[in-house]
Design a protein that fits this description.
The radius of gyration is 29 Å and the shape is rod-shaped. The strands form two sheets. Strands 1-2-3-4-5 form a five-stranded antiparallel β-sheet, with helices on one face. It is of the alpha+beta class.
């Protein structure tokens, strides 16, 4: 009877030791996989934010590309792309700018005072730099450490 006791005890310890090692390695693999997924998802979100912001700027400028209606302004230290409209004799404007970590759009009467916090938030962005050289608009947008550049040749230049 004494022969069966020690061999079963050793084999039982060995089985539990293998189960413990398997559990530790499984946990390590899950943690490493979760970190890799989070890093990939964060990079994709940062990249997509830049694409969304640049596509938004491009579509707004294309939609409102009328002769002499677009200009680049520096207002209270913020770079803004400003588009002017005339509806039934009233002058309006749309400003696209970055404020408070968001790309924003402000549509208002031309005479209204600029209130950057009042603009409609479009998407995340940390900084915007815009320049207009002849009929080429360049808008650079920063989200995190990534810069996205948009170059738009104004169609109204051909009119």
């Amino acid at each position: 009877m004494s022969k069966g006791g020690p061999s079963h005890a050793i084999s039982g310890v060995f089985v539990f030791l293998l189960l413990g090692i398997f559990a530790v390695f499984s946990t390590v693999m899950v943690v490493l996989g979760a970190k890799a997924y989070k890093a990939t998802a964060d990079r994709a979100a940062e990249h997509n934010a830049g694409r969304i912001a640049s596509a938004y700027v491009r579509s707004m400028v294309r939609a409102d590309d009328d002769r002499d209606s677009l200009r680049v302004d520096e207002i209270d230290g913020l770079s803004a792309v400003t588009m002017h409209y005339d509806f039934d004799g009233e002058e309006y404007l749309t400003r696209i700018y970055v404020y408070g970590g968001m790309l924003r759009e402000w549509f208002t009467y031309a005479e209204a005072d600029f209130e950057p916090e009042g603009g409609e938030a479009v998407c995340a962005a940390d900084e915007m730099r815009a320049s207009l050289s002849g009929h080429l608009l360049n808008v650079r947008l920063r989200h995190g450490n990534e810069w996205t550049s948009v170059d738009i040749a104004l169609r109204s230049a051909a009119n």
